[in-house]
Specification:
Layout (H helix, E strand, L loop, with lengths): L17 H9 L8 H13 L7 E6 L2 H11 L7 E4 L5 H9 L3 E4 L13 H4 L4 E7 L8 H7 L4 E5 L15 E5 L12 E6 L3 H7 L10 H6 L13 H13 L1 H19 L7 E2 L12 E5 L2 H10 L15 H7 L8 H9 E4 L7 H17 L2
Parallel strand pairs: 2-3, 2-4, 4-5, 5-6
Antiparallel strand pairs: 1-7, 6-7, 8-9, 9-10
Length: 374
Amino acid sequence: MADRPLIPLFGVNMCPGAASAVADVLVSGQIAEGPTVKAFEEAIAEFFGLRGENRVVVTVNSGTSALELALLLAGVQPGDDVLTSPMTCTATTTAIINRGARPVWVDVDDEGNLDPADISKRWTPKTKAVMVVEWAGRPVDINAVRAAAPGVAVIEDAAHAFTFNRHLQTADFRCFSFQAIKHLTTGDGGAVIMHRDEENRARRLRWFGLDRSLPRDQRLEEDQFEVGHKWHMNDIAATIGLVNLGSVVERALDACLNNAYAYDHALRDIGSDHLRRPGMTSESAWWLYTVQVQDRAAFQTFMARRGIETSEVHRRNDRVAAFAAIAGPTTPGDFPGLDRFAAAQVSVPVGWWLTKPQRDVVANALVDFAQRGG
């Protein structure tokens, strides 16, 4: 093990001005959901170029809440099936199960994303939605998913993919996480991009099922026809998000892309049985730089000796006991793409916090391992 500190896999992308902005909110008399939440939603919509389009942004208190809100709006009910990737954070599957639905696993491609070609094999008569996960920030081909799953809602879990190119595609719902180590953080939080005709219901559902825009006395007179949740964002979180969105996010996305291209440039002429680099694309947000290695334990030991933190980040969800009890067990060979990817994948630091010397250390270590295997 190296005696120097590890080059970290993750960092917090926080604007220095966030502290003073939050301090102002703390003494403002309005720290729950208020005008800053609305301003933050409008700023996200502006970032993604939604002005004049039939799409809106609704914020919530976590990325997991965003996923569950999207499922609810999509009409997913207890007893329904939702096709999804097993190569994801447990939040994806948790949201499905919390709706009373059953996750139905779909195989993944060589980059860890749901494979649209496998959808027809997993389709059931109870399929109500497809939830795709953009592993490492790489977009899924939503048009291919739609073609393979006609007539059901398509939901993007874009927790890794607050993308620089504002790539929205054509999903019915796009869900973001603003958890601490994401490109854009509010401390914790989330958002859903949805069609405008879903907005009013979404805003009620995130606040018990009531219309919070009404004056307090009118809310007391309002009847409630649907049971909602306590999912709304507050002005403290929105203030952090608003400051970060305006000052640090684009630089962070640029840095991730540049670091990924630097690794690819270093590895481009190396044919290796020990390490496979990801396919490069400017479409990815590059929240992770995920390589695939023949011997993961040897790779992680090698990188640790160079002072570099590595991780699988997420485990395959079909092997989580609580999920398997509902989705049903799987066996080796059921999902050949997943078997290959999950056994080999591991991520190295690629984010905005890396200095150029640190980036060079990571690049050189990747090259050395690719050439020698440890």
